[in-house]
Design a protein that fits this description.
Length: 153
């Protein structure tokens, strides 16, 4: 737990058990994008007694401290991912909510060229593409087989 303790202190946050547990879940999850509900469920499975309001409040504090990035994808469904790492963009399935990360140097270069042509300097950006998974939404079928996931819209 020493790593989470240090990260919280460096972010200017008081070290508390809920903050440490939530940070640990975000750092170790197989899901790179987690909703507050996902974090709350993971805490419950781990036997942690942390209320949903606390989870949401801590995630908001993490966002303000720039430990996590909040994304509001399709339907306003907020998900959080750990900050840092290489820049990437997102593709979101509008049927099952699956989020795929991708990086493309050509897209990044083109955005810089457009910004320069318009007289802008890009300081930050997010690109999110919306569409459907291939076939009949393979991720929805996989999630249904595991008993999880969001229902189709």
């Amino acid at each position: 737990m020493g790593n989470q303790d240090r990260e919280l202190r460096e972010a200017g946050l008081k070290v508390t058990v809920p903050r440490m547990r939530i940070l640990q879940i975000l750092e170790t999850s197989a899901l790179p994008h987690m909703s507050a509900e996902d974090v709350y469920r993971a805490l419950g499975k781990a036997g942690e007694d942390v209320g949903f309001a606390t989870v949401y409040r801590v995630l908001t504090q993490f966002e303000q401290a720039e430990l996590v990035v909040r994304h509001n994808f399709e339907g306003g469904h907020a998900v959080f991912e750990m900050a840092g790492g290489r820049h990437h963009d997102h593709f979101v399935c509008v049927k099952c909510g699956h989020i795929e990360e991708f990086s493309d140097d050509v897209i990044e270069e083109r955005q810089q060229l457009i910004a320069a042509r318009l007289g802008y300097t890009i300081t930050d950006h997010r690109l999110t593409l919306y569409g459907t998974c291939s076939g009949d939404c393979e991720h929805l079928r996989a999630l249904a087989g595991r008993g999880g996931g969001r229902p189709p819209r």
